[in-house]
Each structure stands twice: as structure tokens, then as C-alpha cells.
Amino acid sequence: QVQLVESGGGSVQPGGSLRLSCVASGIMFRIYNMDWYRQAPGKQRELVAQIGSNGATVYGDSVKGRFTISRDNAKNTVYLQMNNLNPEDTAVYYCNVHSTPYWGQGTQVTVSS
Description:
mainly beta
């Protein structure tokens, strides 16, 4: 069985930071590209970042320079370091095995004063 377990969400003030983690099981993690998506209320689900099996990264325009995706294949884990958060980053964040129906349940990130 494939399972993705997320952690690290929470509520922070503007300018703050959070680090999200997603631990995968049931797949040969090292061979897959991994994605982070987010969805805010009333908005379309948006690709935040992607990391390839080779470590290459892609970021959405709205998070470039602020967020960093990384992976630790020994731990079957993908991370999203989020810095200088603003209220527009408020959303549910999901990890995904790229091009598969395998998703985490999502973790809420709320940025407010």
C-alpha cells in the first residue's frame, strides 16, 4: 500500500517560516519525482514545487526565492522549507507522487497577524 504522511503545518505570523515533511511508504521512493501542491479556499489547486528523482527542482512563480523543496531518499521523505510567509500562502498543502493518484491528506498552513 502506498501512503504519504505529512507534518509541519500550523499557524504563523507574516514573515515567519515553516518546514513541511512528507514521508512516503509503499513505493520505491528514490525513482519518483515528488510534488507539493496547495489549494486555498475558492482557488484552483496550484503546483508549488517539484523535485526530480535526480534532485532537479521546479517552483511556482509565487514561491520562487522563498520556498525550497528537498528530499532525503534514505528517509523516504520530501520537505518544503517555507520562508517569509505571507497571508497569500494560506492554504492546504499536499504532497503527491508525481503523475500518480497518490496524495497525502494535506496539512493546513495559516499565515495571519
